[in-house]
Specification:
This protein is mainly beta. The protein has three helices and 28 strands. The longest helix is centred in the C-terminal third of the chain and has 7 residues. It is rod-shaped and about 105 Å long.
Length: about 350
């Protein structure tokens, strides 16, 4: 309840027996009007108003608002340390129409400062309604740490603020991704580059000479830099979809890197000796088939291999049990390290 106008007022909230529950003089902030709030249960209450002076008179306005109190903000989890992005945090506050939040972040692994208490005029965003999801995310290569503080709000005012909750996502240590920063003048061949079969893995009776990047059929594959097509062996039509899939590859030589890059399991219309530019589409991924020529969508992927010299056979696997050192002795390079400039 509060008064308005130029008359200097005192205000009282009284119960049904006319005993004072709360009173105020100038909390409205203008040196004239009272303002107070108080939790009440169902019943009879009175608001009485008098002049600041015991003999004073004057006109005033009286406003009374009723609102449902806001419950404390519940957050789950209240902290987290992850190596994948994004991550979701559940947030709720009973009777809130919005849940405001403030954030402070760092991306170099250092601890951020505590964020200030959020308000409707000073916040970094809000969740509409009494519950929702706050998303914690990081970009490739970041070691991101953040602190966030939440506070419920409705037309009656604010609820209690939470503490400063800390979360972190470290995308600089997970070798299952090709992360930024990349080597100079390179880009990733496919967005969201998640590695399924790493360099040197033992699979299919051999040693993997590259990495497998899982993506569905028809995904566009891009050139990682400026180069020249050494051979396009992608448009296979042997009568066996299984053989077509496993024998399709495109090799591009990148002069500035002095490396041959093998793009496996795609279809491309590029001609041998054609020049390609960084970001240029090279083709689309073919669908994966098993040895019975049955589609296996869960295995659709791009094979990415890097070599110091060119070979036309054995580009996907070499002899079982071959060590990483031996692979490197054959001229193969780990594509993840290569893309990072390592």
């Amino acid at each position: 309840a509060y008064s308005t106008g130029t008359t200097d007022t005192y205000g009282y909230l009284k119960n049904s027996g006319c005993s004072n529950i709360k009173y105020d003089d100038d909390a409205a902030g203008d040196g004239k009007n009272f303002s107070f709030s108080s939790p009440v249960t169902a019943g009879t209450y009175y608001i009485t108003v008098r002049h600041y002076s015991s003999t004073g008179l004057g006109a005033y306005g009286l406003r009374v608002n009723f609102f449902v109190p806001i419950g404390p903000v519940s957050v789950n989890p209240t902290f987290g340390t992850w190596t994948s992005s994004p991550r979701n945090v559940s947030v709720s506050s009973t009777n809130a129409s919005r849940i405001y939040y403030t954030i402070r972040t760092t991306t170099d692994g250092t601890t951020p400062v505590d964020p200030p208490v959020p308000t409707s005029s000073a916040n970094d965003g809000y969740i509409t309604g009494s519950s929702g999801t706050f998303q914690v995310y990081a970009s490739a290569g970041q070691n991101k740490k953040l602190k966030v503080r939440f506070r419920g709000y409705n037309n009656g005012g604010y609820g209690a603020t939470t503490g400063s909750y800390a979360y972190s996502i470290n995308l600089a240590i997970n070798n299952n991704y090709i992360y930024y920063p990349l080597a100079a003048n390179l880009t990733v061949p496919i967005s969201s580059v998640t590695i399924a079969t790493p360099f040197g893995a033992q699979a299919f009776g051999g040693t993997h000479t590259g990495v497998d990047i899982m993506k569905p059929i028809n995904t566009i594959v891009y050139s990682i830099g400026d180069g020249v097509v050494r051979i396009n062996n992608t448009n296979k039509n042997s009568g066996s979809e299984y053989l077509n899939y496993w024998n399709s590859f495109l090799v591009i030589y990148y002069p500035s890197l002095d490396r041959f890059v093998y793009y496996g399991h795609l279809s491309s219309s590029l001609t041998d000796n054609a020049s390609v530019k960084k970001y240029q589409p090279l083709g689309n991924l073919r669908g994966s088939y098993n040895s019975n020529n049955v589609r296996t969508p869960s295995n659709d992927h791009l094979h990415l291999g890097v070599k110091t010299d060119y070979i036309e056979s054995g580009w996907g696997y070499t002899a079982a049990g071959t060590s990483i050192t031996a692979l490197e002795g054959q001229g193969w390079r780990d594509p993840v390290k290569f893309m990072r400039g390592q």
